Amino acid sequence: MPTEEEIRDVLAGRLPKRGCPACGGTAWDIQPDMFMSSLYSPDLRKIDTGRGAPMVAAVCTNCGFFLNYGAIRLGLVDPDARDE
Ligand SMILES: [Zn+2]
Known about the structure:
By secondary structure, the chain is mostly beta strands. The chain has one helix at 4-12, and strands at 28-30, 35-36, 39-41, 46-48, 54-60, 66-70. The protein is built from one helix and six strands; from the N terminus they run αββββββ. The strands form two sheets. Strands 1, 2, 5 and 6 form a four-stranded antiparallel sheet that branches. Zinc ion (ZN) is lined by residues 20, 22-23, 25, 60, 62-63, 65.
């Protein structure tokens, strides 16, 4: 699990330089936690709680638009690590 400082360091250089895609705002609040996306399973016909993608996010302080970034792609989570 990445620390709040690691999340802030990784996202600080990746925020949109042209502003929020929804409102054009330029102030972002980096969320200190990691989120998990949900995957719908056609076989189960419901959300598969055992699968998903870890994500970190920044939120536009003007309109609340969320920017989600894949934590594996950013090197914050080891894709080979498994919870046992
Ligand atoms: Zn916005």
